[in-house]
């Protein structure tokens, strides 16, 4: 359809009042046409930009282009209002005005503002999407070789001495060779980034003089967070980051927050979805928001407009931004249908798993939400992995057990073996379990062995926020200590925890900063601090350098030895080739393991022998006494190399018959 200036209704903004001459000139340069209802958002076409927005209840929609003019959108197809404007270039600010209310485009690709809590300052811009990917290839790291590294774009590099100051805290900073060298040397394969969708600070947080640092408060599902861009184009800089990460053989997985938005609860700001289609985008019950996220609203993920927005967002990040997968925050909120009941098979979760674009990337669920019925560990379908909090809890409990009067080894054995009770019923392998002991939410690894109680006073909520059941052990002193014995025990306990994570069947996940011995002073909910408290310390405190050694050594051993990354659950059956069980559980005294031993709450030791091309023996001593551990006899190998001893990282050599295991330590042996 031909372009015409008759689509213009109101005066062009940003031009002088000269009797209409400037206005007419602006519209002659930027005439409009009806455009297309698809795709939604602001997307470049041959002659300009097509603007389209879903607004089913709107009576009037105006497109505002500062510096050009305002156009009444007169074309409507179903619920979508659309207009095409000639000559609009990338970088052009725009907004929709729906029934007199300015609305941020939910499909915007470039958004800025709002970090200070003032959502009225949010702005959308036409994005430049052209990019030369060159020879970029997705690494496609197999699940059994995947080692996740959870990191925050800003927090990862703000204190890095080798990253130029102007690049610290940005996508470009993360892509700096010094950072990538560290990740490759550490042996991780996949960087899992905390939210990078453009997000805002909640007004209540801003009122306390703090900010939303973690980013779990999205206002745009397609736009990368603009403050993370060192230059003026966050879309291009994000792509350049992915390109650089891929060039080193590493993957990029995004932590995505589709369960709620930054519009908050009733009385919250009208940013976009609430103004456009409140009933379509948000879940309601009895006239109020149905909130299973703890953030005031829950996205109605099974509705047509919400599911379309989420799926389009995911596809965009895969196709256009080249990311390798997603971790879904509070994924159980997305597993709800109808009036809010949980039904994974009929939900958006199933839709995502069937999608031809998405089923080929890594899909990781945080398998719970903030409700009583949303805890779904083990409840996701094939093709999905899950954060395994039972691994976290059982591993923490085992290593602190003797000090807290606890004990028993059934839990730690289940987790070392891949959590078959949770994941085997759905036909998934051990790699369905994302195994971790620390994450962004909770204590750092160092704080986990230094504090019994949370210390969140700096959050401004009188220490009421954050988890209370930390399953931590301070090794005898609360907080920092100068007692050499306490310090030595803490360092060993930290090594035990990270080693257990890397040696268990499943997909290990490490928290960025833990390898440097990062402390947050006992704050287990540091979501609101953009400061050295949360920034990764690249120069570790003296004595905590050993954690990098432990991680790098074990990631290399995992890569070299298939026995340390099994793709099937253990059965205890004897191999006709080797004459050995696939797993044998070991007592320190060498006697056969019996069923009653699993129920002995006084036990603080567990051994595990694994059959393979190179057999492995893993010995865990959470007790306070040294042990002389008797090794399995023939047909098991008669000699082993000491691959790791958390009590003495310099220990090497060959052992047979027995091996000394220090108190509160872990020993890994590999057959010679």
From TrEMBL:
Biased amino acid composition, Basic and acidic residues: 456-468
Signal sequence, renumbered to the chain: none
SUPFAM superfamilies per record: (Trans)glycosidases, E set domains, Glycosyl hydrolase domain
Coiled coil residues, start to end: none
Domain Glycosyl hydrolase family 13 catalytic: 146-558
InterPro entries: GH (IPR017853), GH13_cat_dom (IPR006047), GlgX_Isoamylase_N_E_set (IPR044505), Glyco_hydro_13_N (IPR004193), Glyco_hydro_b (IPR013780), Glycogen_debranch_GlgX (IPR011837), Ig-like_fold (IPR013783), Ig_E-set (IPR014756)
GO molecular function: amylo-alpha-1,6-glucosidase activity
A GO BP annotation: glycogen catabolic process
One protein family per Pfam: CBM_48
Region (Disordered): 456-476
CDD domains (alphabetical): AmyAc_Glg_debranch (cd11326), E_set_GDE_Isoamylase_N (cd02856)
Keywords from the UniProt entry: Glycosidase, Hydrolase
Homology family: Belongs to the glycosyl hydrolase 13 family.
Protein name: Glycogen debranching protein GlgX
Protein encoded by which gene: glgX
């Amino acid at each position: 359809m031909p372009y015409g200036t008759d689509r213009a209704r109101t005066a062009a903004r940003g031009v002088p009042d000269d009797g209409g001459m400037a206005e007419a000139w602006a519209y002659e340069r930027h005439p409009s046409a009806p455009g297309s209802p698809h795709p939604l958002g602001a997307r470049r076409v041959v002659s300009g930009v097509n603007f389209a927005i879903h607004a089913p209840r709107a009576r009037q929609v105006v497109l505002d282009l500062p510096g050009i003019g305002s156009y009444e959108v007169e074309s409507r197809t179903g619920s979508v209002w659309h207009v095409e404007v000639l000559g609009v270039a990338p970088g052009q600010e725009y907004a929709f005005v729906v029934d007199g209310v300015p609305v941020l485009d939910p499909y915007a690709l470039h958004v800025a503002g709002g970090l200070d809590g003032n959502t009225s300052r949010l702005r959308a811009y036409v994005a430049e999407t052209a990019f030369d990917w060159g020879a970029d290839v997705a690494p496609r790291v197999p699940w059994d070789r995947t080692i996740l590294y959870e990191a925050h774009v800003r927090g990862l590099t703000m204190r890095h001495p080798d990253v130029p100051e102007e690049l610290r805290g940005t996508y470009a900073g993360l892509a700096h060779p010094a950072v990538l060298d560290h990740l490759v040397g550490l042996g991780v394969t996949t960087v899992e980034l905390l939210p990078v969708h453009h997000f805002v600070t909640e007004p209540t947080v801003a009122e306390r003089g703090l900010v939303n640092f973690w980013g779990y408060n999205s206002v745009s599902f397609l736009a990368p967070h603009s403050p993370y861009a060192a230059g003026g184009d966050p879309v291009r800089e994000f792509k350049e980051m992915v390109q650089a990460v891929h060039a080193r053989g590493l993957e990029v997985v995004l932590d995505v927050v589709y369960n709620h938005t930054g519009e908050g609860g009733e009385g919250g700001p009208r940013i976009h979805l609430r103004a456009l289609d409140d009933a379509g985008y948000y879940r309601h019950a009895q006239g109020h928001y149905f909130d299973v996220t703890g953030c005031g609203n829950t996205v109605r993920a099974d509705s047509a407009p919400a599911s379309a927005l989420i799926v389009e967002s995911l596809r965009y990040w895969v196709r256009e931004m080249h990311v390798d997968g997603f971790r879904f925050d509070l994924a159980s909120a997305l597993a709800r249908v109808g009036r809010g009941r949980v039904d994974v098979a009929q939900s958006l979760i199933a839709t995502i798993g069937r999608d031809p674009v998405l089923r080929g990337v890594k899909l990781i669920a945080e398998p719970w939400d903030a409700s009583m019925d949303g805890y779904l560990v083990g409840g996701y379908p094939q093709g999905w992995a899950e954060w395994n909090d039972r691994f976290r809890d059982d591993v923490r409990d085992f290593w602190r057990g003797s000090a807290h009067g606890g004990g028993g080894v059934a839990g730690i054995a289940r987790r070392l073996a891949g959590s078959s009770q949770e994941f085997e019923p759905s036909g998934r392998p051990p790699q369905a379990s994302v195994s971790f002991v620390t994450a962004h939410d909770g204590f750092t690894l160092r704080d986990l062995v230094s504090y019994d109680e949370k210390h969140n006073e700096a959050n401004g909520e009188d220490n009421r926020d954050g988890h209370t059941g930390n399953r931590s052990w301070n090794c005898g002193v609360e907080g920092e200590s100068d007692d050499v014995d306490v310090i030595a025990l803490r360092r060993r306990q930290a090594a035990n925890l990270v080693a257990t994570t890397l040696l268990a069947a499943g997909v290990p996940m490490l928290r960025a900063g833990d390898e440097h011995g990062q402390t947050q002073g006992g704050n287990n909910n540091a979501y609101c601090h953009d400061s050295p408290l949360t920034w990764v310390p690249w120069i570790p405190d003296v004595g905590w350098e050993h954690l990098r050694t432990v991680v790098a050594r074990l990631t290399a051993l995992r890569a070299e030895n298939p026995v340390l990354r099994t793709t099937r659950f253990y059965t205890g059956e004897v191999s006709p080739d080797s004459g050995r069980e696939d797993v044998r559980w070991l007592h320190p005294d060498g006697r056969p393991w019996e069923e009653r031993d699993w129920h002995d709450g006084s036990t603080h030791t567990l051994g595990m022998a694994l059959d393979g091309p190179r057999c492995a023996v893993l010995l865990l001593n959470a007790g306070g006494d040294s042990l002389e551990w008797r090794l399995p006899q023939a047909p098991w190998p008669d000699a082993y190399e000491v691959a790791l001893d958390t009590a003495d990282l310099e220990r090497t050599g060959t052992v047979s018959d027995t091996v000394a295991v220090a108190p509160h330590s872990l020993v890994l042996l590999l057959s010679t």
